[in-house]
Amino acid sequence: MAESDGQERTEEATPRRRQQAKEKGQVARSKELASVSVLVAGSVALMWFGNTLARDLFTMMSRLFSLSREEVFDMTKLLDIASGAIIAVVLPLMLILIMLFISALFGAAGLGGIQFSAEAARPKLNKLNPLSGLKRMFGMQSWVELLKSILKVVLVAGVAFSLIQSYQHDLFQLSLDIFPQNIFHALDILLNFVLLISCSLLVVVAIDIPFQIWQHANQLKMSKQEVKDEYKETEGKPEVKGRIRMLQREAAQRRMMADVPQADVIVTNPEHFSVALRYKQGTDKAPVVVAKGVDHIAMKIREVARENDIYIVPVPPLARALYHTTELEQEIPDQLFVAVAQVLAYVFQLKQYRKKGGKRPVLDEDTMNIPPDMTY
What we know:
The chain is mainly alpha-helical.
């Protein structure tokens, strides 16, 4: 893990830190879960298939120890007898081994999942350092392992003693049973002992799993400086991000200014706001905002409008309402249709006035209906 330059690690690991640790094979693992899973599964497998295996072994040994003189000196018969006896034992033995393999796989992957990491498999020279070894010997992990070992010994001894007390009658009965029934009876008792003792170790597993999760999370903790450095690496330095945002704004403004010549009218609050509206009959269902801005941008919009002979109409309440309620390339809100229609009609009348003359049209702002919730 990365060093924290002596700073105290108080921050929880970031998702990137956890992902990097996972790629290196550094995940929470519980050896107790894996070993107890194998013990319990092995005990269950022996209870399921042990009787069959014991009988097959008994039959095999009985057959091999009762060979006739003719069979002993006939290699063909001897091989047939041996192979037949072994084949009879293979099936229950394979079933037991398969259950052990599956339990070992799921027990190891039960905490942390299945991970393949080439980096975790590489030899690490720091593990050969005697000082590091002494540190591990007297570290928290060593004390926890010692406590777990003591707990396992106490559990196994306590459960074994209580089982012996409970099975006293059955144990004494073994000497009175007839051979080979006493052998199978003894195996049943032994398997019960093994299963119950193995299950008692689940107490250790229940303690070890939360500890391993806590320890792993604690090892991945980061200092405040590490969190800041990682943020800079992933998100970029604030200066660079600010520069990128500025360039993006400039590019957006250039695109917006390029759309201003398409506008039919510029609605302004003479000092601060400018909103360019486009309405093409047959194309636009409603007037569309193609550009808007405040202060310097508002002035630039008005400059481009003058260069392209676009009408500039000062209607402060409508300009503010359009600016705050409508985004670029969006149609105006329904509540502003009437007011915008009055402005567009006024522009049309101005065009007619320029062509034909007559009485100059006047826009009556008092008759414009701007909803109170849109007055800014």
